[in-house]
């Protein structure tokens, strides 16, 4: 699909479909379902994107791949800030997240933001899992369109 | 050079957005009535202009002027109507209305997941961007009179 807005519109519609078809008590289920959608997408995407590249030296290298190449392929930009505590927790900050730029410039529509971050979280988790890294990904938004993804590596 | 008000209607007649910058005289009726009046009138004028045309029309109805103000009209292929009242010194602002549609409306309303089509626009981002754009136009007054 050549035009980037097609992905955005498709994403918007998937989310509203999910929410329309589930009952009031199942709202959290929707976030979980969106996340597992993203998981599967991330897995396949990363297979395709790393066809040509060599194996990653270590975890940090894998994270840098996610921040630079993976983000570039999907959102046409790179992550603005990567922080880690070297103990398995990484925080990725994107100051102008693609799905949130058109929504608001600050605090409006804040309650709706998590719905739009569930799929991207799942994509990160799927991508990492297919690269051999098991983790839990959460996202938080304090002021749109900036958002932070927190990745916690699970060591077996 | 002044911009007085701006209305945005969708194809069903719902007023999606209304804003004013320099309106000095209120019409003396409620906002709902005003929107219905505006939409009905514009619809009638449009179809009147079309039927009475003695030659082939290029664009159809585009503006009307009185001795004090000018009302400019622009309709998109999807039926969105942009109506802007300005003073008499402005020329043809069809391009400006088109820019409002493509750079601001489509960007910040159509692409906003929270804004449903056919519902009044509540996005503050849209309001901010629209305001910035209008104030930056050369037809907007630079000093408040």
From TrEMBL, chain A:
<dbReference type="GO" id="GO:0005783">
    <property type="term" value="C:endoplasmic reticulum"/>
</dbReference>
<dbReference type="Pfam" id="PF04051">
    <property type="entry name" value="TRAPP"/>
</dbReference>
<dbReference type="InterPro" id="IPR037992">
    <property type="entry name" value="TRAPPC6/Trs33"/>
</dbReference>
<dbReference type="InterPro" id="IPR024096">
    <property type="entry name" value="NO_sig/Golgi_transp_ligand-bd"/>
</dbReference>
<comment type="similarity">
    <text>Belongs to the TRAPP small subunits family. BET3 subfamily.</text>
</comment>
<dbReference type="InterPro" id="IPR007194">
    <property type="entry name" value="TRAPP_component"/>
</dbReference>
<keyword id="KW-0256">Endoplasmic reticulum</keyword>
<protein>
    <recommendedName>
        <fullName>Trafficking protein particle complex subunit 6B</fullName>
    </recommendedName>
</protein>
<dbReference type="GO" id="GO:0006888">
    <property type="term" value="P:endoplasmic reticulum to Golgi vesicle-mediated transport"/>
</dbReference>
<dbReference type="GO" id="GO:0005802">
    <property type="term" value="C:trans-Golgi network"/>
</dbReference>
<keyword id="KW-0333">Golgi apparatus</keyword>
<dbReference type="GO" id="GO:0005801">
    <property type="term" value="C:cis-Golgi network"/>
</dbReference>
<comment type="function">
    <text>Component of a transport protein particle (TRAPP) complex that may function in specific stages of inter-organelle traffic. Specifically involved in the early development of neural circuitry, likely by controlling the frequency and amplitude of intracellular calcium transients implicated in the regulation of neuron differentiation and survival.</text>
</comment>
<keyword id="KW-0524">Neurogenesis</keyword>
<dbReference type="GO" id="GO:0030008">
    <property type="term" value="C:TRAPP complex"/>
</dbReference>
<dbReference type="GO" id="GO:0007399">
    <property type="term" value="P:nervous system development"/>
</dbReference>
TrEMBL record, chain B:
<dbReference type="Pfam" id="PF04099">
    <property type="entry name" value="Sybindin"/>
</dbReference>
<dbReference type="InterPro" id="IPR007233">
    <property type="entry name" value="TRAPPC"/>
</dbReference>
<comment type="subunit">
    <text>Part of the multisubunit transport protein particle (TRAPP) complex. The heterodimer TRAPPC6B-TRAPPC3 interacts with TRAPPC1 likely providing a core for TRAPP complex formation.</text>
</comment>
<comment type="similarity">
    <text>Belongs to the TRAPP small subunits family. BET5 subfamily.</text>
</comment>
<keyword id="KW-0256">Endoplasmic reticulum</keyword>
<dbReference type="GO" id="GO:0005794">
    <property type="term" value="C:Golgi apparatus"/>
</dbReference>
<dbReference type="GO" id="GO:0005783">
    <property type="term" value="C:endoplasmic reticulum"/>
</dbReference>
<dbReference type="GO" id="GO:0006888">
    <property type="term" value="P:endoplasmic reticulum to Golgi vesicle-mediated transport"/>
</dbReference>
<keyword id="KW-0333">Golgi apparatus</keyword>
<dbReference type="GO" id="GO:0030008">
    <property type="term" value="C:TRAPP complex"/>
</dbReference>
<keyword id="KW-0813">Transport</keyword>
<protein>
    <recommendedName>
        <fullName>Trafficking protein particle complex subunit</fullName>
    </recommendedName>
</protein>
<keyword id="KW-0931">ER-Golgi transport</keyword>
<dbReference type="InterPro" id="IPR011012">
    <property type="entry name" value="Longin-like_dom_sf"/>
</dbReference>
């Amino acid at each position: 699909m050549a035009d980037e807005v097609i992905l955005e519109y498709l994403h918007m519609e998937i989310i509203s479909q999910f929410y329309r078809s589930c009952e009031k008590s199942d709202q959290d289920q929707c976030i979980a379902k969106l996340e597992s959608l993203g998981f599967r997408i991330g897995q396949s995407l990363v297979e395709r994107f790393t066809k040509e590249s060599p194996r990653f030296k270590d975890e940090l290298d894998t994270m840098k791949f996610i921040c630079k190449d993976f983000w570039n392929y999907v959102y046409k930009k790179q992550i603005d800030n990567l922080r880690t505590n070297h103990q398995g927790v990484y925080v990725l900050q994107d100051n102008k997240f693609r799905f949130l730029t058109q929504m608001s410039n600050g605090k409006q529509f804040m309650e709706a933001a998590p719905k739009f971050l569930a799929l991207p979280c799942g994509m990160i988790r799927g991508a990492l899992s297919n690269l051999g890294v098991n983790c839990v990904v959460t996202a938080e938004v304090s002021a749109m369109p900036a958002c932070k993804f927190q990745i916690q590596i699970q060591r077996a | 050079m002044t911009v007085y008000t701006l209305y945005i209607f969708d194809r069903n007649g719902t007023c999606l957005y209304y804003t004013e910058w320099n309106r000095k005289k209120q019409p003396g009726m409620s906002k709902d009535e005003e929107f219905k009046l505006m939409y009905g009138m514009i619809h009638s004028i449009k179809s009147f202009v079309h039927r009475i045309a003695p030659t082939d029309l290029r664009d159809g109805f585009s503006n009307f002027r009185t001795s004090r103000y000018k009302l400019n009209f622009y309709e998109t292929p999807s039926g969105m109507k942009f109506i802007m009242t300005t003073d008499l010194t402005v020329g043809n602002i069809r391009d400006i209305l088109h820019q409002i549609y493509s750079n601001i409306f489509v960007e910040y309303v159509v692409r906003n997941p929270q804004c449903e089509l056919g519902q009044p626009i509540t996005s503050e981002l849209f309001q901010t961007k629209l305001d910035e754009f209008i104030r930056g136009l050369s037809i907007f007054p630079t000093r408040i009179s």
